[in-house]
Structures are given as C-alpha cells and as structure tokens.
Design goal:
There is one protein chain. The protein has helices spanning about 20-30, 45-60, 75-85, 110-135, 160-175, 195-205, 205-210, 220-230, 240-250, 255-270, and strands spanning about 10-15, 35-40, 60-65, 90-95, 140-145, 185-190, 235. With about 270 residues, it is α/β, with parallel strands linked by helices. It has a 7-stranded parallel sheet with strand order 3-2-1-4-5-6-7, with helices on both faces. Helix 3 runs parallel beside helix 4 and helix 4 packs parallel to helix 5 (about 160-175). The chain is globular.
Amino acid sequence: MAARTKPSTRETALITGASAGIGAALAKQFAAGGFDLILVARSRDKLDALAESLKAEHSIEATVLPTDLSVHGAAKTLFDAVKKRKLAVDILVNNAGVMEMGAFRDMTPERHQELIGLNVAMLTDMTSRFLAPMLERGRGRILNVASIAAFQPVPSLATYAATKAYVLSLTEALSEELKGTGVSISALCPGITETGMVDRARETNAAASQLPLFLIGDVDDVAGQGYAACMAGEVIRVPGALNFAASIAARAAPKWVVRAFAGAVGRMAT
C-alpha cells in the first residue's frame, strides 16, 4: 500500500455502512492512514471481525457501534452513543445507503420511502448532528458517498439516482457554506463498483448481469480515491476516466439530450 500522510495527532473517523463493500474498504484506508475508527452497520459480527483485523494490522483503536440507520431516530441514537463514550468524530463518512434497480412503477411505495429515508433523510440527519461539534472545534471533514448516478436521471434507478443527486447537491452547497470554518466536505461519486449491492442487482436484473467487466470499478481503488479526496478537501471526486467523462458530459449537455440518452439506455435495462 502506498505511503500516506498520517494525522499529526490521533484522530477518529466514523464510517457508516462499514461492514462490507465501499464502507469496509474506506475503513481500511482510514486505518492505514493512522485514524482510530468508529464502525457502524447492522451486522455486529462483520464489524467485530473488521475491527479486530484493522487493530492488529495498523495498531489503531476501533469502536463498533451496531446500528440500523434505516430506523427513524437512529442518527440521534448513534450521536448520543458516541457522545456518551466521549469520542470526538474528526471525520464523518456517510457511506450507508441502499439501491433498488427496476421500473419505478414496479417498486412499492414503502420501498421508495426506504431509499429516501436512508439515502437522504438519514444522511442529512447525520451530517447535521456531527457537523455541529466540528464547527465548535474549528476542524473536521465529511465524506458523502454519492454516485455517478447523481449527475443525470437514470430510468430503472429513478429514485436511487434522485437521492444521490440530493447528496451531491447538499455537498456542493455545504462546501461553500463551510469555507473559512476549518471543516471540509467531499462527495465521492463512484460508478458501478464490485460490491454486494451490485451483486444483488445482477441477481434481479438481466441487463445488470450482462455488464462488461471494464465498466465495473475496483472497490479498493474507489475507496482510495475517496480517502484522498476527503484528506485534500476536494469537493467532488469521480473515480475512473469513463465515469469522469460521463459526469462532465451530463453537466455540459442540454437537459433534453441527457434525458433522451438516459431514457434509451433505461428502456434497454427494463
């Protein structure tokens, strides 16, 4: 693993959705950077195993706080648990999220609300609560995991893409609000990445199961870029040359062109 700059004093990163996928890979990146960790997800067993592995390999401390962030009020419960343990969160990584692939009409109203609740409401609540003490200390970093889907409408991922567009917009707005405060905020916008979430999409959607390998990003590379962007205070990081080009095109092209192209691709996937 490449050498990296370690924090001048022992600092702590809280990572949600840390039990697998991009979250677990981000935990490894921050541990290698010398940060203590607070690992959050639903699965205690997976978190415990990850914590023990990272403590042994990097001589850091790792606190496990199993939490179902889809439950209303979970962000407050988590914030209070961290405060009770007298832990200061120097870096907040909002990685927990959920994706559902398929036609909007085929998803239940409850499933739409689950996506919005976790990807939007919970992330906003977490950001609001953990940002306040960062501002009081005059330092801190926030990394929000969005998606390449944040840059354009995506038929067959309509609600998911809309939630990630919110995450990107919130991050960009706060990056301006936070100038001069000592707190930075970054959005990591990966494309399709080799994770359990993508595996589940492949199982339930024929088009997803036929994705060429060159379009699927490596989870460790994505996490490494997220870590680098967070530490540099970079507002937006899009891993992968093709993804970066697509994000530029989506912002530069007329809306109707982006919509028509996305619609044609989306109809192929449903």
